[in-house]
Amino acid sequence: MTYEYKTTGTCSRQISVELDGTTIKSVRFMGGCAGNTAGISRLVAGMDARDVINTLRGTRCGHKPTSCPDQLSIALEEALRAEGNG
Asked: How many CB atoms lie within 10 A of CB 36?
């Protein structure tokens, strides 16, 4: 299943998440800091989405109340709910 999430409060505009059950197959950020978002995408591939949510939830970017990792945790929560796994 592929889930598209429109981000808020970050430089990235959208996150595309591909899941196999609760396992993250791939993550792609549109916009944002290219090196950081590519690194996050590589780190989370193959991980259980619930573990990633627990790890990244609440991460802030400077003075902003959110960040690309935090937005990824929200996207994963929504994707799991849409798939009936959340």
From this structure: 16
Strand partners, 6: 14
DSSP-derived secondary structure letter, 48: B
In the chain, which stretches have pLDDT less than 50? none
User: Of 62, 43, 39, which Cα lies nearest the Cα of 51?
Assistant: 43
pLDDT at 76 (0 to 100): 98
Question: What whole-number distance in Å separates Cα of residue 8 and Cα of residue 1?
Answer: 22
Contact 75, 62 (CB under 8 A): no
CA separation for the pair 13, 43 (Å, rounded): 20
- Distance between first and last Cα of the chain: 14
**What pTM was estimated for this model as a whole?**
0.95
Q: Please report where in the chains the tokens 């609760």 appear, as a residue.
A: 22
